[in-house]
Design brief:
It is a single chain. 35% of the residues lie in helices and 0% in strands. It starts with a helix and ends with a helix. The protein has one domain.
């Protein structure tokens, strides 16, 4: 119900050809889940904290870049 409502208020918000529609906030996580050199959480092995929620990004672009780095770290671990 929310997307059509926003579309009435913000022209172009909900496009028919959109693959994914989402929002970006202007706040950052007040905490950071520490991770080691291999990208894994120092406290929980096998957990790869990434992006804004884990405290490693401040917006959608930096979160995407951080996600790429973590995906590479996971791939390296799986190939080892």
């Amino acid at each position: 119900e929310a997307l059509p409502m926003f579309a009435r208020q913000i022209k172009g918000f909900a496009m028919d050809d959109a693959v994914l529609t989402g929002v970006e906030t202007r706040t950052s996580s007040p905490l950071r889940i520490t991770r080691g050199e291999d990208g894994q959480s120092l406290n929980t092995r096998g957990l790869y904290p990434a992006g804004e929620g884990a405290g490693y990004a401040g917006g959608i672009l930096s979160a995407a870049i951080d996600g790429i780095g973590i995906a590479e770290a996971v791939a390296l671990r799986m190939m080892a």
